[in-house]
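Re-run requested by the PI after the first attempt was lost when the workstation crashed. Everything re-entered from the original request form. Ligand of interest: 5-amino-5-deoxy-1-O-phosphono-D-mannitol.
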Amino acid sequence: EKAGFDHFMLKEIHEQPKAYRDTMGSRIDESGTKVILNEVKMTAEQVKSIQQVHIIACGTAYHAGLVGKSIIEKLARIPVETDVASEYRYRSPIITPNTLVIVVSQSGETADTLAALREAKRCGAHVVAITNVVGSSVAREADDVIVTWAGPEIAVASTKAYTSQLIAFYLFGLYLAQTLGSQDGEYIASVVTELKELPAKVEQILEQGEAFKDWAEQVASHNNLFFIGRGLDYAVALEGSLKLKEISYIHSEAYPAGELKHGTLALIEEGIPVIALATQDDLFEKTVSNIKEVKARGAYVFGLHSEGETELVKAVDQVFSIPNTLPLLSPALSVIPLQLLAYYASLARGNDVDKPRNLAKSVTVE
Ligand code: M6R
């Protein structure tokens, strides 16, 4: 049932191109220029009355929600807050009938996420769920459900569920933009075109999958490391760091690159690995100057950039490139090398990749 792969996690990493295609599926119209989300039953009037969006989730789904915040703010120009469910539900959040609450949960059974959903409904908010399980508690209780068609995810470490959640956010962000008229049709069509090209680009990254083994083996001999990035690269850094902690048990911290010098830079010493994401064109120069700061203090830097960005090669010790796409879509590509890094680092350390210690696939306790 692992289809020839050694672990479910590796199988699921390789299922991502299919998960992207299935999640986009019939949600893109035939002309390839627009999104159709028939499952969202909000009227145009309801969409236009949204004053704020709250995205609520736990763990990896929360990290997808951080990317979702950027997507919705950019495409729909509505203010968005993303919070972890176990914080949100206890902090008396300001939820009004004009708040759109989006809950994200692979399993649809996470206790804190479900409780946050119920609180949002009690306050009169409209709740949209992004979930991988049709008929789950979250799916049953939400007003609208966008199903991610990733298929069953067995490995405790989430991979294809996360990336399918990103696809769901792109679709939903485009749907909001279409309904609100917040972006012109030409721009929407260009995002849809690039979205459709993502699965083939993920395949290109996966073809070089074994290349990440060496990288992982180098990382696996350390007990501490950093992931840095700005903007969407920071959101992906958080996910890369969680994945690595969860299955390799190596401590790592994800940091906004520009924030390092406000304290954390003191931890950079000779030989410490720093994984630097620099896929965002408009932030590239700024990230490179942060890379120089850690290099000057002895860090060993692995850089991740978009193809053709030769500048990074000079600034780092090793470099990996991902195919070019729109900066907004890059998380759907840049996370793949980080998933493979975590996988091979876990293997190198002889851990149980699919069932890491202390963790359960579905967290139904508070
Ligand atoms: O089923 P959910 O998406 O609600 O689960 C949320 C988290 O428990 C989950 O994403 C967890 O962080 C993963 N094990 C991370 O790989």
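Saved to the shared folder this time. Residues 185-207 form the longest helix (23 residues).
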